[in-house]
Structure formats: C-alpha cells, structure tokens
Design goal:
Blueprint lengths: L1 E12 L2 E22 L28 E22 L3 E12 H8 L7 E12 H4 L6 E15 L10 E2 L6 E2 L12 E14 L4 E20 L5 E25 L2 E18 L11 E5 L2 E5 L7 E4 L27 E5 L4 E11 L2 E11 L2 E4 H9 L3 H13 L2 E2 L5 E5 L7 E3 H10 L7 E3 L2 E13 L9 E15 L18 E2 L8 E8 L2
Parallel strand pairs: 19-26
Antiparallel strand pairs: 1-2, 2-3, 3-4, 4-5, 5-6, 6-9, 7-8, 9-10, 10-11, 11-12, 12-17, 13-14, 14-15, 15-16, 17-18, 18-24, 19-23, 20-21, 21-22, 24-25, 25-27
Helix pairs in contact: 3-5
C-alpha cells in the first residue's frame, strides 16, 4: 500500500518564479502465508509394496502432513520538502530535504541498539541557460549548464536480528544466528553531477556532456565469525564516477530526405574504497566462489574482479602434464587476476531515415570491455560436444596428428610454446572438470544490431489527417562483433558477483513483429 499527501505552491513575482512542495509519503507491505505439505502418492513406511494410486493430492496420502504459517511486515515513512527559485526563466536554484523512518531501525531503537529510527537527506542544484544570459557565437543556438548534489538513503534488510527460536517439543531456546549489530545505519549514496546541454548550427547539432561522481557508503554486508555466527556490518564504501556524452545531427540534404543520427558514449569507473575489517583493523576476506572463479571484494579493487587458479608450470613456463597427458593446475592456493566482469564503456548509435512516407531506423549498441565465463562451454568440452573439440578431432584425422607418448590416440599441439602433442580427449576432459575455468573466460566486448524498423505511412487513408502507419520491427538481430561463444549480456543473475557467469542459460531472443498506428 502506498499513500502520499503533497501540498504544492507556485507564484510569480516579477522576474522571479517561486515553487515548492511539501508532504508525507508512506509505503507498507504486509504478507501472510499458510503452507500445507503432504505426499502426493500413498505409500507405507517400509516401501514393501507399490501404491495403488499415484498423484493423489490429499492430506491422507503417504505420511503425516505438515502445516506452517507466518506473517511479514515492512514499512517506511518520510516527510519531504522541495523548493525552486527561478529568475527570468534563465537561472534556477532548487533544494530538497527528506526525513525517512524505516521499520528495521524502529526495532533497533526499541531494543536500545540505536538512538534514532529516522535519518535525513538533502540535495541542491542549479542550472542556467547561458545562451539567455550572455551573447554567444552565432553557431551556438542554445547552451545550458547544470550542477547538482544529492543524498539518497536505503534501509538495511528487514530482519529481526535478535530473534530466538523455540523447540516446541523440548522447550529448548536457540539463540539468533546473528551477532550483535553494534552500529546499524542505512546505506547512503552521495552524488555529484555537472554537465551541459547545447544546440548548434540552427538547432541541427546537439551535444550533451555529463560528469558524475557517486559514493555509496554504509553498505550493508554480512561476514562469518569464529564462533559460527553471522556479523552484520555497515562499513563498505564504493565509488562510481564517469562521463556520459551524446552527440547528434539532423541532416536535411533534400526536401524529401531527412537523416537523424545520434551517438551516445558512457564510461564508468568503479572502485571499492572500504570493505569489512576485524577488531585489529585487518581487512576481512570477502568473496563469492562460483565454479572455481573467486569474485573478490577488497579495498582498491572493483566490484566484479575475478581470480582463478593457473596451470602448474615448470621453470620454462610450460604446462605440467600427468601420465595421461592431462594438464595440471596450481595447488598452492595462489590465484591470478582474470579480469572484471563489468565493462567500463557502453555505446549506442541510433539512425532514422525519412524518405517521403517511408521511414527506416536502426539502433547499434555495444559493450566495450569486461569478461564473461561460460560454464556451458566448459561442460561441452568435457563431453566432446563443443565446436573446438570437433575441430581438433577433424584436424587430427586430416593431418594424422597423434599423441605418440600417450598411446597413439588423436592429438593436438599444446599451446604453451613447448611443441608437445597431447591427447585431445584426455586434455579437454581435464579442462572440463577443472575447478577454475581460466580457459573459459572470454572478452565480453560486443557490438550488435539491437533494433531495425522499416515503416510506411498511408496518409489520409481514413480521412483528412487520419493516417495509418505500418512498421516491421526486428530486435536483437545479429552481432557485428563478438568474442564469447555466447551472448555476453545473458548471465546467471544480475546480482553482484554473478553477472559474468553463463551456465546453460536460455539463449537471447531474436524477435520480429509488426506495428500498426492509426491516427483519428
């Protein structure tokens, strides 16, 4: 349930415009569930006979059923106020303040852990239409400058951190799995942004540029303790800064032809400023391990940094092999940096052509940088179903390449500079079963035709100024460039630390359709 009350004010005083709003907002989520569990097929406990009925959904079926129920509640409240002062419709200054109340912090206040259950955030900004204030070169038709600073809060998870559990059979009380939360605080993001918007050459050329710097502090995280409990911390801090740029042009070479094009480019730099620390001030090791890939969160690094085991190598840098011709991996625990799963650069290029009543438009976008891990490709190599294992077998058959030291089976040249020939099947089975798929980390850079549209407008088809537009639309049609064997933008999850993994995911969808638009 969402409720808000707002009071707005607008007034003009000569060259000045004043506006403001104040109010209250509330958001409440309540839930209640009742679960009844029972076996769907009757059977006896000793499994001495086959059931006479299957898929018989009844609490009498099988063993004794179980029933559980529960309730959940989450809410947040806020008072807020904003105000803006404008001068000659050219200069604007605005400010805002917000006071938030969160349910978890009400719990902490009542339990004596926290002194307050509400927190304040403010923001301010200014923008000026420079082209209205000073005389600019004739080529510049419009120029606006803007700057702003803002704070945004986010509550920690809504848990009863000190809740205990009672065994109804024995009466025993089990304590909370969480250790004491000593200094709970909401997460806070402080953002600074500045930039320009401009029109040039009789409003045909557009150019926008933005710089931003956002620092997220008091980030909530959990770490394990030596006592087996989970410790809650608000100590992490992460910075994102970067630029966004858009440039476009509206070409009109002929009265019957128009071409509008726009190119967007963005760059983001992510850096972990602080993580979690023990009582002595030593940084705790925080990582996720997925299929042998260690996604580490450590001070000075970036979210998405990946580390893997390398091959075990001799003094010449050659891969060590066992008696079966299989590669050996470093067992010392040392990990090597494999890259970051997040790309720093993103781009998009849109184009629209109008020729009489025809319209053609397309969008090309790209991701530059980052890594993707294909666990699917690793398993296909293990079973010999991948394209590269097939190519290796075909090459061995065509050129009579055999691993003479390993039973004269089909072989391939080991790509480590040693010139050795290893058995294809044994080698790829070792790679496919390895805990640490360094060979399956690919460059995530890709450029694709995201959308293509071709349309025609039947003018006055339904009467004067009553038009019908028919368009054919295709989306995610093909890649211009892609290094990975899968779509780099299809991942296991959007959760931090899982965005770069592809594990037998459903392939990305290519779609075709028609659009009809009628103007009455």
């Amino acid at each position: 349930m969402y409720i808000d009350y707002l009071l707005n004010y607008n007034k003009k005083f000569g060259n000045y415009d004043v506006s403001g709003s104040a109010g209250w907002v509330g958001h409440t989520i309540k839930g209640e569930h009742l679960d009844i569990n029972a076996d769907a097929t009757p059977f006896n406990a000793q499994l001495q006979g086959l059931p006479t009925r299957v898929n018989f959904f009844d609490v009498r079926a099988g063993q004794m059923g179980g029933k559980s129920k529960g309730k959940s509640s989450e809410w947040d409240r806020a008072w807020l106020a904003t105000g803006q002062l404008g001068w000659k419709e050219s200069v604007y200054v605005d400010a805002s303040y917000r006071r938030d109340w969160y349910r978890p912090f009400r719990y902490f206040k009542l339990s004596g852990v926290s002194k307050t259950d509400n927190f304040g955030y403010f923001g301010f900004g200014a923008n000026a239409i420079v082209s209205n204030l000073v005389k600019l070169p004739e080529a510049i038709n419009y120029l606006k400058y803007r700057v702003s600073y803002s704070e945004v809060g986010n509550s920690i998870p809504n848990f009863a951190y000190d809740a205990v559990d009672e065994n109804l059979q024995t009466g025993a009380i089990a304590g909370s799995n969480y250790s004491q939360f000593t200094d709970p605080r909401p997460e806070k993001t402080r953002s600074f942004e500045t930039g320009i918007e401009s029109l040039w050459l009789r409003n045909r050329l557009t150019f926008d540029l933005t710089y931003y710097n956002a620092v997220m502090s008091n980030l909530y995280m959990t770490v394990s303790t030596g006592t087996g409990l989970t410790k809650n911390l608000n100590s992490a801090k992460v910075r994102n800064q970067g630029i966004e740029m858009t440039i476009g042009y509206d070409f009109k070479p002929f009265s019957w032809l128009r071409w509008r094009t726009s190119y967007n480019l963005s760059y983001n730099n992510n850096k972990i400023l602080k993580t979690a620390y023990d009582e002595q001030g030593k940084e705790r090791e925080i990582e996720q391990v997925v299929a042998g890939v260690h996604v580490k969160y450590k001070e000075g690094g970036s979210i998405g940094d990946m580390y893997v085991r390398d091959y075990d190598r001799d003094e010449n840098g050659h891969i060590k092999l066992n008696t079966l011709g299989q590669p050996q991996f470093d067992k010392s625990g040392k990990l090597v940096y494999a890259g970051n799963m997040n790309g720093n650069w993103q781009m998009g290029w849109s184009n629209t052509f109008n020729y009489k009543d025809f319209q053609l438009s397309f969008l090309i976008n790209g991701r530059i940088g980052g890594k993707v891990i294909s666990i699917t490709e690793q398993k296909l190599d293990y079973y010999g179903f991948s394209e590269r294992t097939a190519n290796a077998r075909l090459n061995a058959e065509k050129n009579n390449v055999v691993a003479a030291d390993y039973g004269n089976v089909p072989g391939m040249v080991l790509n480590d500079g040693s010139g050795r020939i290893v058995p294809i099947q044994a080698f790829y089975q070792a790679l496919g079963a390895a805990d640490g798929p360094a060979d399956y980390i690919y460059n995530a850079t890709n450029f694709r035709l995201r959308e293509l549209s071709l349309g025609y407008t039947f003018r006055n088809l339904l009467g004067i100024n009553r038009n019908v537009s028919l368009s054919f639309i295709g989306r995610n049609l093909f890649f211009f460039y892609k290094d990975a064997p899968t779509d780099p933008d299809v991942s296991l999850s959007r959760t931090n630390g899982l965005g770069g993994f592809e594990v037998f995911n459903t392939p990305s969808t290519r779609s075709y359709g028609f659009s009809v638009k009628m103007n009455f």
